[in-house]
Amino acid sequence: MDGEKKQRAAIDWFVIRQRLDAARTAAEQAWLPDAQATARILQARARALAREPAQARDGDALEIVEFMLAHERYGVETSFVREIHPLTNLTPLPCTPAFVLGIVNLRGEIVSVIDLKKFFDLPDKGLTDLNKVVVLQSATMRFGVLADAVLGVRRVPVAEIQPSLPTLTGVREEYLKGVTSERTIILDAENLLADGKIVVQEQVIG
Fold it and tell me: What is the pLDDT of residues 5-53, one digit of tens each?
């Protein structure tokens, strides 16, 4: 009798486990989408992925190189920045405006360096190891601008750019593209590169 009870109890537990497994499998399958639902989900994901590059091309943000000038943050669009170099092997130029710092040799290419602090009449901190030359270039012009330090590259939403600030007057306002909400002054690099007052004439360099 005892043996039969043990055998019957073992068989009962086996059946119960089978039923539980079957119930769990049915519950899991109930949460799985059918073929049509799966197709709708994949289509929605595809549309979302397709929208991302389009949003990046909408021009709703500017990518800028941000740098310091006399304790203020400035920026220029990366589309006008060719390269950034440490300030080394600077050669001063005689008979040039005070804002022309000199020339540097970049891999055999002579590039003039403009000190925007003097051009904008900002306080001069003097040269340090942190100084960098941000080489700007357009289709017709190329020169470097002296930066006290380069902070990096970032994207700025166009909606956050203000036209100007009351404190930005004089020559700086002529080359202003806008001011961010964090008070980074974005310069109009295209205007800078096209301005004849900044261009160092070849006959003067010679």
Answer: 555 545 565 666 666 666 555 544 544 445 555 555 555 555 544 444 4
Is the Cα dihedral 183, 188, 192, 195 positive or negative?
negative
The reported pTM is 0.66
Cα radius of gyration (the chain): 33
The Cα–Cα gap between 149 and 133 comes to: 9
Greatest pairwise CA separation for the chain in angstroms:
119
Number of neighbours of residue 144 by Cβ within 10 angstroms: 25
Domain boundaries, the chain: 2-56, 61-205
Check: CB of residue 188 under 8 Å from CB of residue 176.
Answer: yes
Q: Are 76 and 134 a contacting pair, CB within 8 Å? A: yes
Does 61-205 carry CATH code 2.40.50.180?
A: yes
